[in-house]
Amino acid sequence: xxxxxxxxxxxxxxxxxxxxxxxxTRAVTGPPAGAPVxxxxxxxxxxxxxxxxxxxxxxxxxxxxxxxxxxRRNPREETRDRVLQAVAELGFVPDGAARALSVRLKEVVGxxxxxPQPSRSDxxxxxxxxxxxxxxxxxxxxxxVAQHYGYDLLIRSVDLHESDGRRIFALARxxxxxxxxxxxxxxxxxxxxxxxxxxxxxxxxxxxxxVNVRSDNEAGMRELIRHLAVDHGYxxxxxxxxxxxxxxxxxRSATIRAEAEAAGVQFxxxxxxxxxxxxxxxxxxxxxxxxxxxxxxxxIVCANDQTAIGVLYALGQRRIxxxxxxxxxxxxxxxVARHLNxxxxxxxxxxxxxxxxxxxxxxxxxxxxxxxxxxRGRDIVLPTRLNRRESCGCGPGHPDSLVLAGTEGxxx
Amino acid sequence: xxxxxxxxxxxxxxxxxxxxxxxxTRAVTGPPAGAPVxxxxxxxxxxxxxxxxxxxxxxxxxxxxxxxxxxRRNPREETRDRVLQAVAELGFVPDGAARALSVRLKEVVGxxxxxPQPSRSDxxxxxxxxxxxxxxxxxxxxxxVAQHYGYDLLIRSVDLHESDGRRIFALARxxxxxxxxxxxxxxxxxxxxxxxxxxxxxxxxxxxxxVNVRSDNEAGMRELIRHLAVDHGYxxxxxxxxxxxxxxxxxRSATIRAEAEAAGVQFxxxxxxxxxxxxxxxxxxxxxxxxxxxxxxxxIVCANDQTAIGVLYALGQRRIxxxxxxxxxxxxxxxVARHLNxxxxxxxxxxxxxxxxxxxxxxxxxxxxxxxxxxRGRDIVLPTRLNRRESCGCGPGHPDSLVLAGTEGxxx
DNA sequence: GCGCTTCTGGTAAGCGCTTACCCCGACTCC
DNA sequence: GGAGTCGGGGTAAGCGCTTACCAGAAGCGC
Lengths: 412, 412
Prior knowledge:
The structure is a homodimer.
Chain A: H1 51-58, H2 62-70, H3 77-90, H4 96-103, E1 108-114, H5 133-148, E2 152-158, H6 166-172, E3 177-180, H7 187-196, E4 199-202, E5 211-215, H8 217-231, E6 236-240, H9 247-263, E7 266-268, H10 279-291, E8 299-302, H11 305-317, E9 327-332, E10 345-348, H12 351-366, E11 379-382, E12 385-387, H13 407-410
Parallel strand pairs in A: 1-2, 1-3, 3-4, 4-5, 5-11, 6-7, 6-8, 8-9, 9-10
Antiparallel strand pairs in A: 10-12
Helix pairs in contact in A: 1-2, 1-3, 2-3, 5-12, 8-9, 10-11
The structure holds a DNA duplex.
């Protein structure tokens, strides 16, 4: 840690050491003994004021303070004014933990994301943190609606397939419910977890006790394959897959196979085409494929955009023209897709909506509106849409296409 | 919200309505009356088990349970075993709020990020959420070390220069301390806040009660300008600025002016060059500039990479060659920078380190190690480094440069 | 004028933990 | 053998809130 040009004012006011918990400060009932009036008022640092401080300042009981603040009953106007004034003067905000304990609601939901694998790759993709974009955008979607409900997100990342789920169960006790990103837990653990606390998963599967939210892989993939096979007339398509056991990957893979078959197009898949959702993984697969001398398909569909980035890179290295010799498409349509060269054709997932929907759903589980039906066991599916750009062979003249990022400046 | 193909098992087990708080369940002291043994054991949904359940199951007092779990004293082996077994059977995890209230530590830190402005732009940059990348990467850096200390991050976004800071003060009571991203609070509010709770800011300024963490704008900018002016010999440089009142922007702007002067290079700046850290803003400024017929400088330095993306776009639209006619450079070195065309020269900020350092610092404020000095008032500065790529005029042959993303596939 | 309802404010219990304090039995040491 | 120590377990206070319950005051009808 580098310490810089700090204005070394050498002030001595430390945060006062807090007394250990336990009986010592406050009489059994009634306001705290002689605690100094804390708060934002004076310049004095100190503990934030408590409801007792407010009550004392306003000359009322703590019950009245609480009632005014929470709009219970109908306090006399004078009482209300005195309380509000004291609150303003002291800058009182109720403590979250105490409130949570009392009302049995924390107004916090836990979000578990998968920690990016420790990068096994050097070189261009070394700190491949763009990976973060996808889950982070989902989280952003959650955050917006969470805020609307007065909730906050408690974020924790875990390793891929966290073995015992201990960290996840622990997070559950800091929150009112959990949203789990893909591949952070096993089905068994999930079912167990769902019995103890409201849980919504993303891109996984519903269990009897939990709800799943995902996007429509089938429809999106179908549209993409038909575009490649029919509109462009490509005769062979390879699928560079993601993690084998990811439900998204399974669905995408199954759909592409079925559609390719239906269109009478050759389909390449299997172990040599096994990626891992990362750009480095995509590049690695392509390099092996190229090194093996195998003939490439006319089009390559990638499990996600991240993978496609790696593929574009590897093909570029070999001076293979995209889409001239090989067309490439991705899935997700993350923002970078538009800045790639060539611009990446991709199936758009409603990324922020996924997050927003996940939160809405969880909230419905946590405090169900009157008469609302129990959602547990449901699989909520959001629509997808194909975004055609250049990498699939759609020219810059294509109606869906836009000129971008200085490309023409370079072209002769 | 679209409800899809759910497996409509029509289960009836709702989360049992929790009793309202208040006296009703438990005898004054001792275990709760006849609460069913809850937990992960049976298939029964229900409240998670409490320490009373564990104590009863193990045939000991709650104090013993707590002591075993927290490693206090030195429980007899038999006691320990019985407690641990009961804990395992019931799947007990202590409630966060209760624990927080008791030990006066929540093990949560609040993180406040600036919500992206409601997009005022249509077209290419419409959902310009890549903006998120920068703060999100910082957060990721925090999260990693937070986890190390057993903390979690409570994320909240606020509008630019949140007027009264109410949301921020509220967040403070849900956490043990705050990390504030840039431009979310005024100095006055910050000072006030710092008196009530430990606060670390990012890319802002230290106050007597708070610590600031930032990266070395001056050194990075100096290196960049010297590279442009001396190595490349460009005779004029424009600075497309960020938010006027952002300390980062001020520092970058001041340095570039000083360095340009020192190198005897013409420096362009001022209102027509006023951006807002966004790609859309960068594009807009360039378009106005071009429309006005003003002569462009030989090199344009952007307040951040985001802005540079917009500039590349606008120049590309006009078929202005980069770096041939105008060289462009950014600041931050976000991952996309490598995928742009041409690849963007940029000053690298240690993004994840910023987050990690911010957390470490905050942790030191929250629970200072014995003998540790008070950091408040400090300005912690992390080093930066210039990454030379093509957009400044360094050719693909440059040692720092790497061929990328299928570019050559397109070039004749 | 008196019992009744209505309205407000105060009192204290309880949310689920941690831990100070007390107590008791087993040892130790003269 | 009795006082002193020590180790371990139980009891209950207290963390800062919300709210059930109670009590007194005020309003009301007959």
